[in-house]
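note to self: dont lose this again. the chain is below, predicted strucutre after it. 41 aa total, dont forget to put it in the shared folder this time
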Amino acid sequence: SPPKGATIPYRPKPQVGGPVILAGGQAYTIQGNYAVPAHSD
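---
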């Protein structure tokens, strides 16, 4: 797994059928064992 604070050089797009968490109005997608904010343009 990547070290904490690692930056992802691209915006991950949520995959169809992939697990998505909605918390506080912010969408997160599960990647590996951690959740990252899902960006919607």
